[in-house]
Amino acid sequence: MIPAIQSKLPNVGTTIFTVMSVLANEHKAINLGQGFPDYNMSEELIALVNKAMTSGYNQYVHMNGLPALRERLAEKITSLYATAVNGDTDITITPGGTYAIYTALTTILQPGDEVIVFEPAYDSYIPTIEINGAVPVLIPLVYPDYKIDWELVKQKITPKTKLIMLNTPHNPTGAVLGADDIVQLQSIVKGTGIFILSDEVYEHLIFDGKQHESMLRYPDLYERSFVCFSFGKVYNCTGWKLGYCVAPPALMKEFRKVHQFNCFSCNSPVQFALTEFVQQKENYLQLGSFLQQKRDYLKNLMQQTKFKALPSYGSYFQLYSYSGITDESEKDFAIRLTKEYGVATIPTSVFYKNGEDNKVLRFCFSKKENTLEEAANRLMKL
Ligand code: PMP
Ligand code: GLN
């Protein structure tokens, strides 16, 4: 008899990013679905990885990450967010941001713990909470600007609340936390045992002069936070799957216990290369204006279609409403757009546990201008 698995995630299928990318390939559609750039990454960074490999840096580095890279990241954090972090005790290099989130949640959560999750939520959050036996407590961000209703958060806090999940800039909406949100958060967690997991993979992809409200700016928030980052988003190399988690020493000590028996240590030559490359501040400081131009480029083109843009202040993404076109469900419409019009997007309903459908699709604008032009040309036919 072949043994049968009792699924730990009985209600979960294949992630929408894979579903839509496969469909896009099948139909030779322009892929504005899954979030990745279609332009080249830095030749210099590629050369640095080559140099590291040919210089023989091909064996395991320290399980917490190459010490020199962690030191450079600590310097970067101190210069950007004015909080002193120690690369030795507060930073662990991980195989991507998703892994950092998974490990942080696995480190903290006990069965029955409650986790505040704002919806729409990046698709890994809820399954990761559930696989750890904890319970997501879902709070909708307020459509159409996707702000947090802090009064509702206060009502949803119980003695079982273990953690609040944050994501700024936000995927899929492009919303960002403001100084007013931070004040509310500070007053809610003060004097409680509530942790924060802050997904900040889009820290530099922020527009219109807004400031990135990292937990690392606020010592009273950082003392209870795991903050997760991704090099893939900063250096246009999402396929490299390297990131890091930052947390105060006592929290990080436990995180590392879990990490050491999962991936243990990450790709070495890339860490050697990044140690040099992260010191070039202009590479990440110009990212916001670079992506803002792309957001605006697509938005201008889309004015010739029947789609209506919702605001996006950060990330790779902008939501567009199609309520003026059809009342089809987001999923059906996204599939039809891919098959019949050759443009793949992501239905926002997949980021809600109950599939809430506001007739908005997520468009990824981290693409070459001619990719965006071709997509808009196809959508004008609608
Ligand atoms: N969080 C969010 C909000 C994301 O959009 C992504 C996208 N990939 C990640 C985490 C994960 O990043 P990584 O590819 O480094 O795992
Ligand atoms: N973060 C990217 C997105 O939101 C894709 C990541 C993935 O495919 N898992 O589209």
Summarize the entry for a quick read.
This protein has helices at 16-26, 43-54, 67-81, 87-90, 97-108, 125-131, 150-156, 179-189, 219-222, 231-234, 249-259, 268-277, 281-285, 287-302, 330-341, 369-379, and strands spanning 30-31, 91-94, 114-119, 135-140, 161-167, 195-199, 225-230, 243-246, 308-309, 317-321, 343-344, 346-347, 360-364.
Annotation field: number of helices: 16
Class computed from helices, strands and strand pairing: alpha/beta
Distance between the termini: 53 Å
Cross-sheet strand order for the largest sheet: 2-8-7-6-5-3-4
What's the CATH architecture of the largest domain?
A: 3-Layer(aba) Sandwich
Q: What is the CATH C level class of the largest domain, in words?
A: Alpha Beta
Please outline the major beta sheet.
7 strands, mixed
Low-pLDDT runs of 5+ residues are: none
> Could you state the CATH homologous superfamily of the largest domain?
Type I PLP-dependent aspartate aminotransferase-like (Major domain)
Fill in the CATH topology of the largest domain.
Aspartate Aminotransferase, domain 2
Please give the domain count: 2
Radius of gyration: 21 Å
Per DSSP, what share of the residues sits in E-state strands of 2 or more residues? 5-15%
Would you count the extended β strands for me? 13
